[in-house]
From TrEMBL:
<protein>
    <submittedName>
        <fullName>GT2 family glycosyltransferase</fullName>
    </submittedName>
</protein>
<keyword id="KW-0812">Transmembrane</keyword>
<dbReference type="InterPro" id="IPR001173">
    <property type="entry name" value="Glyco_trans_2-like"/>
</dbReference>
<keyword id="KW-0808">Transferase</keyword>
<keyword id="KW-1133">Transmembrane helix</keyword>
<dbReference type="GO" id="GO:0016740">
    <property type="term" value="F:transferase activity"/>
</dbReference>
<feature type="transmembrane region" description="Helical">
    <location>
        <begin position="403"/>
        <end position="423"/>
    </location>
</feature>
<dbReference type="InterPro" id="IPR029044">
    <property type="entry name" value="Nucleotide-diphossugar_trans"/>
</dbReference>
<feature type="domain" description="Glycosyltransferase 2-like">
    <location>
        <begin position="153"/>
        <end position="275"/>
    </location>
</feature>
<keyword id="KW-0472">Membrane</keyword>
<dbReference type="Pfam" id="PF00535">
    <property type="entry name" value="Glycos_transf_2"/>
</dbReference>
<dbReference type="InterPro" id="IPR050834">
    <property type="entry name" value="Glycosyltransf_2"/>
</dbReference>
Length: 442
């Protein structure tokens, strides 16, 4: 990884992996345009020149540098003091202490670790994301792709959410871009055929008796007539220019995927990077536009994630490894209602790490399947160590940092139960790995 300590703090991050063309996502600083370099903040506090260079590359990527070019193919080892300086600069002090403790528990030399940690601790945490790279031309950009009006296929799986789906379809009726079809795969019981009559939309409703989210999406993609697939959820609200902003973003950046941001009324704080364009490190199937050729190249969704979690995360990672450009789009936003009924809640898994029963597997086995398949067992264990303790606290407290800290302490007392949960998940993920991916081709 760019900085070795990222393996502790981001053990399952897309950007820690090398793509199929042999490159990482991080741009070589020597090739950055001068106008981009002027928007970065050189840090002369690093001991090595190489660390200064890597730090600028980190800034460029995370602040919104999108033009693809000559990227790193490998990274060299950095001085220990530079590793600690980097994490103190960009991560919360609690996580910096976490790295120190973890390294001490794995028998790293305390006479080297502690002084390096303490030296980095003097550094004030960076606010670099408050000054993102600007794409000033975007606002007035006249998109030829929008003018060409390609057919967009909007795909919505639904399960027992007719009142919310009604608002979803009303928002689609109000779109300023009109050349789109809507494919709803309805798994509701009872199925309401009359619900789909009378809409001012090119609307096709497909009844699916099996309650299976990824089957629904795969099936709709196979039936889609458009050259672009817009994946959407049944409990969301969007503005009238939602589709236009997705298409415009693909055109402006010559991208393959436009990942719209999702603003939720529950859960964690809205990330700072949701406010500006950047290369996305995730794919949210509740709000994303993809060229249909992406599915032709890497296949459909892996049904190993059926009735579980992170099927969209795995797909985004697959697209990243193949080299497709995925841009996080702040202008194509949705309000995700996360309603209390229907959807995944009725399929047995709402949160990837939180369980409803004492001895249910934690995390959901598909999560470990994803971690282990792409990042290996060692990184998967590091991911468990970072994510499982905070998951003791209910989802609604994700915004509450003191409560998450309490969850870490509670996990010590609940360690026997947690170990049983994790072992169950590990065993079930091993079965998935043995079975292999269940990916159909388009």
């Amino acid at each position: 990884m760019l900085f070795t300590f990222l393996k502790y703090l981001q053990p399952s991050h897309y950007f820690g992996l090398k793509r199929k063309d042999g490159t990482y996502i991080f741009p070589k600083v020597e090739n950055l345009p001068q106008e981009i370099l002027q928007q970065l903040e050189k840090d002369n506090g690093f001991k090595s020149d190489l660390a200064k260079e890597y730090d600028l590359s980190w800034q460029a990527l995370n602040k919104g540098y999108i033009v693809s070019g000559d990227n790193y193919t490998h990274f060299k080892k950095l001085p220990l003091v530079d590793e600690y300086r980097f994490i103190h600069k960009y991560f919360h002090p609690v996580w910096c202490l976490y790295v120190l403790v973890l390294r001490l528990f794995t028998f790293k030399n305390p006479l080297k670790e502690i002084p390096a940690y303490l030296k980095g601790r003097k550094l004030k945490r960076s606010t670099y994301l408050q000054r993102p790279i600007e794409h000033k031309e975007f606002k007035n950009y006249k998109s030829k792709l929008v003018e060409e009006k390609p057919l967009i296929s909007v795909i919505i799986p639904t399960l027992n959410r007719y009142p919310y789906l009604k608002d979803v379809l009303k928002d689609l009726e109000l779109q300023d871009y009109t050349n789109f079809e809507v494919i709803v795969v309805d798994q509701s019981e009872p199925y309401q055929e009359d619900f789909y009559k009378g809409w001012n939309l090119d609307l096709k409703a497909i009844q699916q008796t099996e309650k299976a989210l990824w089957l629904a999406r795969n099936r709709a993609i196979q039936l889609a007539k458009g050259d672009y697939i817009l994946l959407y959820d049944d409990d969301s609200r969007v503005d009238a220019d939602w589709i236009t902003q997705h298409i415009k973003t693909l055109d402006y950046f010559k991208a393959d995927i436009s990942s719209g941001v999702s603003i939720s009324t529950e859960g964690g704080e809205v990330p700072a990077h949701y406010s500006f364009f950047h290369i996305s490190s995730q794919l949210d199937t509740g709000n994303v536009l993809l060229k249909k050729e992406v599915f032709g190249k890497i296949g459909l969704f892996d049904r190993q994630f059926e009735k579980q979690r992170m099927g969209d995360g795995e797909y985004g990672l697959r697209a990243y490894l193949e080299g497709f450009l995925n841009v996080s789009n702040p202008y194509a936003k949705r309000l995700h209602l996360k309603v209390g009924s229907g959807g995944l809640r009725e399929m047995g898994s709402w949160d990837a790490f939180r369980t409803e029963k004492w001895f249910a597997p934690r995390p959901i086995p598909s999560v470990l399947y994803l971690f282990r398949k792409y990042h290996g067992n060692k990184r998967a264990r590091l991911a468990l160590l970072k994510t499982v303790p905070p998951s003791i606290i209910p989802y609604k407290f994700k915004r509450n940092k003191p409560m998450l800290l309490i969850g870490v302490f509670l996990s010590v007392f609940l360690l026997p139960v947690i170990l049983i949960q994790v072992c169950k998940s590990w065993k079930l993920s091993s079965q998935k790995l043995k079975e292999g991916a269940k990916i159909e081709r388009l």
